[in-house]
Amino acid sequence: MDKKNVTQQNIKYKRKLLAQRRRRARLRLLIVLIFFGVVLTGILFAGYALVSLGSRINQEYQAMYDGYSQRQQAKRGQIDPRFDGYTNVLIMGLDDGVDIDGGTEKKADGIVVASFENSTGKLRFIHIPQDTWVNVTGSKEQMKIKYLYAMGGAPLMTRQVNALLGISILALITYCYMGYMRQTAESIFAVFPLLAVLITPILGNYLDNHGKAVSMLILGSLLLIGCHLTFAFILPMFKGSAVGGIIVAYATILVLGASFSLVPASLWP
Q: Which pLDDT band, with edges at 50, 70 and 90, does 32 fall under?
């Protein structure tokens, strides 16, 4: 009888422990589900907040871009429908030397618009003379178009060409001239034939007695190429040094004259 009671008590005790374990497991499961629910709710809320913020930022930027486009269109004015379907590029040559009018500020001496027809690929060039008088965009002042760069830089030049030609400029290309006076350039080029005059008789006598016409032709061609490369790439390096630029210019023009003497002399029968 005592053994039966002990066995029943053990069974009840074990059932009680199992029930407690089940309740604890259910409680842990509930806590885990609540935790993951809170985390998932937080993720969803953060995602919604980010999407809303991104949407608001996108709307603000879109409104800013629309306003910018409207202002740009208002500055450009009415576009000539004949230039629809064209990609227009403004090309300007800038010079900060003294010009014929006595001005010393940087100005646009060369103004060309390259217009590409998108449908056919044809290219046309529109040249605008630098001394063209224009009504300055946004003011009642009149001046030569070459001085607008010093007044308002590339943006003012672009707006002015837009208004002048009735086109929309897509891109801008600028390049710089050496800043020498026109009289200086003329005096440099004046020495071009000097070395040629001096060495032509010597070259002719050498060719008559020794030949080497092909070698002299190759040498003259190489000197000719070297002189043009010097004018294109080396001479602009001396833009800040007037003396150095003048020396390089004189030396290069003398060698250019010699190369012009070498090539014809080697081809002369």
A: confident
